[in-house]
Amino acid sequence: MASTGQNSDAGGKGKKAVRIFLSSTFRDMQEERFRLATNTFQQLRYKCESKGIDFSVVDLRWGITEEESRGGQVLRRCFDEIDRSNYFVCLLGERYGWSATGGAPDALLQSTFENAIRDGHKWLGRYRDRSITELEVLYGALELQHGKNAPAAGASRSVLLSSQEESPRALAFLRNELYATKRFAIGDEQRKDFEPESDAHYRRLELLKDRIRGSPALISSHDYEDPVDLTAKCLRELWALLVRDYPELEEGDEDESKPLSGVATPLELHTQALEQCRAQAKVFVGRAKIMRALAEACKKSGGKVRNNVIAVAGESGSGLSSLLSAFCLQSTSAYDVLPIFAGTRVETRTAGSLLRQVESILKEMYDIALPVPEDGEGARQHFAAWLEATHARLRLGGKKLLLVLDGLDKLEACDDYNLRWLPEVIPPSIRIIVSSNARAHATPGTQGDPSGANEDHPVVRALEERSAHILELELLSEPERRRLAETYLAQFGKKMSQQQLVAFSKHPCCGMPRFAQVVLHQLTCYASFETLFDQMQRYLAAKDFASLYEVVLGDWESAYDHGKEKNLVSRTLSSLFVLQGGLSEIELMTAVKVKHVTLWTPFFQVLRGSLTKLPSGCGVYALFNRHLRSAAEKRYLSTAQRVRAARLSMVSFFESRPLTCESTLDELAPLLVSVIRSSSRSTVAGSVSRLVNFLSDLDVLMLMYEGGRKQELFTAWGEVRVAQGPDAVEVYDRVTSRGGKACGRTALVALAGFYGEIGEFRAAVAIANRLVSSDRAKYGREAVELGESHLLGAEHALKAGDGELAVKFASAAQMVFEKAQKREERDTHMMQKMAQFSFLSGSGDARDSSALLGLIRAVSLVAEERKKRGEYEQARTFYATALSAAAALREDSPHLARLHSLAADVSRKLGHYDEAERSYLKAVRILAKAYGEYHPHVVEVQRNIALVHKKKGNYNEAKRHYATILDTLSSVFGRKHFSYGVMLNEYADVIRKMSNPKDAEPLYREALAVIEGSLGPEHPEMVDPLMSLGRLLKKEGAYPEARTHYERAIEIVEEVYGVDHYKYPILLTAIGDVERKCGNYDRAQVMYADALGALESSVGCDHIELSDVLNSLGLVHKKLAQYSAARAFYDRALSIVKLHLGEGHLKYGVLMTNVGDVIRKEGRSEEALRVLEQAKDTLEGVVGKQHTEVAEVLHSIGKVYAQMGQQSTSTRYFLDAIRMVQECLGRAHPKVGFYTNSLGEALQLTSPDEALKKYKAAQSLLEQALGKQHPEVADVWTNIGHCQAQLRNKAAAAAAYNEAIGIVYKVFGMEHPKFEMLCKNIAKVGGTVSVGVETSNRMRQRRTQPRKVVRGRRGAGQHDSQEALRHAVTAMQLMGWV
After folding, report:
1. Which residue, 598, 724, 758, 1050, has fewest beta-carbon neighbours within 10 Å?
2. In Å, how far are 305, 1019, 1033, 1041 from 1047, measured between CA atoms?
3. CA-to-CA dists, residue 247 to 43, 50, 89, 253, 729, angstroms
4. Which residues of 902-941 are buried (b: 16+ CB within 10 A; e: fewer)?
5. H or E element, residue 460
């Protein structure tokens, strides 16, 4: 046998390898061999390979081909495999094996002996009567361990011992002779397989056993009772041998996730990476063409801008890592090789951490003087400098470096996919090769494409944009598939027949190395000589990965689901399936409730090869293999009940653990949310209670809110709210009222932040007050912590609309930070500490001290409060003060950039657009230098620059900026990323303002589809695009679809944030507008009242958001002919808009239009005309002369001139309004009907026939757009009646009036002035009112029938809403609004 540590076929040059030859008879040892293969050897393989030792077993249950057997090559193959092995294990039962003992001459057996003798094994001439099994034992253990030149059979034991090593490396396991008797009844057909062939065979076997027992120095023998007993004893004895020969196996398991500062040095990491290359290249075959292409690309690459990165892309499972590993090993003679495998360790999960590892290794390899950056951001920024420094060292030594970055698609951060962190110019002595999966998303493929394919991965797109040399990795050719099979099986001493190889290589999926290796692995574990062909056909019947894994699951079940561990496979995979992430092996064992580690351990060693080891933790494994997931779902979780049971089982597991465990924080809330959604009414309360108990722990809140689990936290509380569970504020108030250690400062700060994000600003302010009290008592009146608590209160008071309280908080914070700053300036030691801290954190120098930054932030908050109140000049002064204080900051400080950006916001509000643009540009320059031009902070300021141009009316310039931002986002994230959708929504707003709104509609819809596809249909980011599209559809008159979008948005807000969030009343107002447009004034009033009350309670009585709902209330009261109430709402809205936005704002012009229309209806034409002309000037100054809002004011002016009897002037205004609306909104828009009706009114006095045509055109258009029962249609019928009466068509006039009165009665009731007016008109033409008592009753019943209405948090009904409106009007009278 080979020596320990000796190079063998199992390992590469200098590689330690364990290779075990397993010898036994076949027929009676099937179960033993199967259990060893699936249990004992799997455990040993994992232990060895975790220490870099190759492990393989030669088990010739199959592997000697039929051609070799017929050709008499069996003995030669056996001896060759023993020579290549360094451990020998034999199993003996009751059968002796194939031999000439006591039987007729066997020509094939004789041929086998002759061939082996001719091959050099002349000693066999004396053993022709022995079995093949005994000859294996003789050759591998007892006498002839050193191959063809071994000592003669009669040599003394001392001679043999002198040629041995210190102790034997051979084991024999002898089965109890009563095994067959205990297992099988007399006469059982299977018992024959466990009985000796003959008495002669029995005697030979006993002699062999005696010889084994008598040679303890050569072979260690052990008795066993049954196959289960064998697996335990074989594991124990083999492990003892391996530990003796490889002491490193006894060392503790290496923590693969240790940081760079841990035990592993950079050079050790480099060595481990090369070892990983050797492991992955072990069965690499073929690919000669792409290997040559890689070598050629490396020769040509170097020093060329944007064409010096070499890339390899291929489908999942195509063998990218194996290819690059083989290329690295092949290139060691020409290059220093540094391979890095992304995502396989904590240090390589992001581009920054990956580059930091590269830089630390380069520092050690080439003794580079640069300091290794402390964080990933610094590593990204300085990577180009590191490459230049490495190039200088390489040039001195005349060397070249090959840097391989494999699997960039496995990076966790999506913004790493843009590859902006790769320098555009690579020094000429360095070659960089990167790899990525070709597709961003893959589904189980078809037979011809086993990987599946969708769109290009963002990494591939980024490589294409930088003109990288991209090589496509194709499927293995048929000859390469045959070589892969031969190479893989050679590790285990096995071969396939030519027929089997052809069948294997012809299968299309075997062109994917991963698919092929799964098949080959299963065959080595589960096939025998007799079953090999059938097993192969079973695996190759799979048309894709998913169906292959279904077969694999069946194999695992047969191997590990028995005894007291029934359903072990299904329990394990079901548990992993329902998780978002994964678990460690110990956690998984506990969750699955494993009773017998002896069965679990081998199963997990097999399973772990198909799991993903997460880089975010030590030994955490997740079921991310989409093919195995698909198979497990189909097999074990095919019904909702099974999925729910699996989730509940995992919920119980996590609840039994400390709630602050990482895995519990990651998994418990999402699991319970899923359980609640699948619960019935009778069971949902218990699940909600379990979720609330978990979330109510303040440590849980803090770790979820600050630990990257915000969305899970918001979703969980949203689900509690939907299930009518307790309110989050109530729950946390009860918890904090109890006090204790859990209510520490950090937890309370997190709670305040959480309250702020769900719109509970008042509750956040209360937490800030509590922090102020505790910080003052604990830290003193000059502590930075106290200032931070004041700042926290200021921020949330500002959001709550309480400007005075915000200023109070911010002023207190300013005083604290000023004192702290003076104290720091006196304390030189503290300044030095600050400098040290700033250097270590990469933040710059000591001038960016916490006190100084806090002072700047406090002044900025006061400025922000003034800005919120519309006191822009004061805000501008405060920002100037903050900028003056910031002069002590570094010129490139990001804090300075933020101040410039905030100051620019105020300048923009004041209309100083040029000044705002200059400040924004300063911010962009600083941020781009600090973070790179593609950083989100930079994009945000560029977005504000676009907004400036939009405000200035430079829509083309705004469009250009938005287009640039969209291009940036597209290149960084791709067009399917949610940030692209968010910006596209704003871009659509510009398009809507500068052209026909219909041009914006497809952009709005695309933005909505992108965000929904990226984040899901219920994500909070869906709210704004739904609102934008709803607003556009409302403008276009598509009211039902607009309502649908608004209702989707309000459902998201209610679920995620709750009805107290500020967006909820805004959406209520929008839905109310749709109801108003549809003539449902009662419903509109309900929503407006709820929206007004909610906004006033959450943001105060003067917040700008109130202006929209007040305007809507004015419009509905105008429709109800309640002109004084309407005027009161308009006047209050005007005051708010004037306060916050000034008289030159679009909203001010719209409100003035509505006020002018009310004055007209009150009969004050001259005053109305004056107000409307002022509104027209305002609107034209904001949006230009060709806009729908201008059309609205033109229509109102026309109505005034018509009222004044100036027909020609009014006609001109109406025609201009109609033309604008048709151009902007289309000829079918309801406003065309409104304005056409008004045009008819202007024509009626002089041209009644022409007027009647206009009325009928308006009637047709409005009935089609709004329905036949809309109030606006009633107005048109009334005008038709007037016109028919003027033309003396009394019957037609009476019919038209009756149509109008029917609509008025249904919508407004008999109390409306129009009802009485129409009754009089009918009497004048001699008609009768056709709306009788029965019809009236039916209409009243129809009007009062319940209908689903979106309500606010108070759930107020119609009566309550009208009562609230009356109180509101009374209050406004007292305040002087009326």
Report:
1. 724
2. 52, 14, 14, 10
3. 17, 14, 21, 13, 59
4. bbbbbbbbbebbebbbebbebbbbbbbebbbebbebbbeb
5. helix 458-465
Cβ(108)–Cβ(26) under 8 Å? no
Cα(247)–Cα(1293) distance, rounded to whole angstroms?
109
Query: For residues 485, 491, 494 and 499, what is the CA-based torsion angle, rounded to 10 degrees?
Result: 10
Alpha helices in 1057-1080 (DSSP H): 1063-1077
Sequence-distant (6+) residues with CB within 8 A of 212 are 90, 92, 137, 141, 142, 172, 174, 219, 221
What token pair was written down for 71?
A: 């050709």
Are 1012 and 1022 within 8 A, CB to CB?
yes
Using DSSP bridges, classify how beta strands 401-406 and 336-341 pair: parallel, antiparallel or unpaired.
Answer: parallel
Number of residues in the chain = 1378
Residue for token digits 């109430």? 1125
Burial of 1006 per CB tally in 10 Å (0-12, 13-18, 19+): middle
| Average pLDDT of the segment spanning 1326-1336 | 62
Q: Taking residues 1092-1107, report their average pLDDT.
A: 76
pLDDT band at 1087 (very low <50, low <70, confident <90, very high): confident
Q: Which residues, including other chains, have CB under 8 Å from residue 179's CB and lie 6 or more apart?
A: 93, 94, 194, 225, 226
Using DSSP bridges, classify how beta strands 582-584 and 469-472 pair: parallel, antiparallel or unpaired: unpaired
1321: its two tokens: 């008109």
Run of H or E including 583:
strand 582-584
Per-residue exposure over 707-728, b if at least 16 CB sit within 10 Å of its own CB, e if not: eebeebbbbbbbbbbbbebeeb
Q: What residues have CB less than 8 Å from 680, skipping those under 6 apart?
A: none
Cα–Cα distance measured from residue 386 to residue 363, given in angstroms and rounded to the nearest whole number: 9
Q: pTM for the full model?
A: 0.52
Asked if residue 337 has pLDDT above 90, the reply is yes
Packed helices 498-506 and 532-540: angle between N→C axes, nearest 10 degrees = 10
CB-based contact 968:977 (threshold 8 Å): no
pLDDT in tens, 890-901: 676 777 777 788
Which residues are bridge partners to 58 per DSSP? 21
Q: Which helix (H) or strand (E) holds 312?
A: strand 309-314
Could you give the CA distance from residue 793 to residue 863 in angstroms, rounded to a whole number? 15
**Lowest mean pLDDT segment, chosen from 138-142, 862-866, 954-958:** 862-866
Whole-angstrom Cα distance, residue 1076 to residue 1082? 8
In terms of Cα–Cα distance, which of 511, 540, 514, 515 is closest to 527? 540
Measured in degrees and rounded to the nearest 5, phi and psi for residue 1081 equal: -70, -35
Q: What is the DSSP letter of 333?
A: T
Query: Any bridge partners for residue 469, and if so which?
Result: 310
Mean pLDDT (the chain) is 78
Q: Phi/psi at 50 (nearest 5 deg)? A: -65, -20
C-beta atoms surrounding 110 within 10 Å = 13
- Give the Cα separation of 590 and 595 in Å (integer): 9
| Residue whose pair of structure tokens reads 């008159």 in the numeric block | 1037
How high is the pLDDT of residue 664? 86
- For 765-808, write each residue's pLDDT tens digit: 898 888 888 888 887 777 778 878 887 887 787 777 676 787 78
Q: Is 128 helix (H, G, I), strand (E, B) or coil?
A: coil
Largest interatomic CA distance in the chain: 141
Provide the CB-side half-sphere exposure for 947 (13 A, CA): 19
| 1000 in Cβ contact with 991 (< 8 Å) | yes
CA distances from 1353 to 192, 199, 207, 1065, 1350 (A): 81, 93, 92, 9, 10
Q: Which amino acid is located at 865 in the chain?
A: E
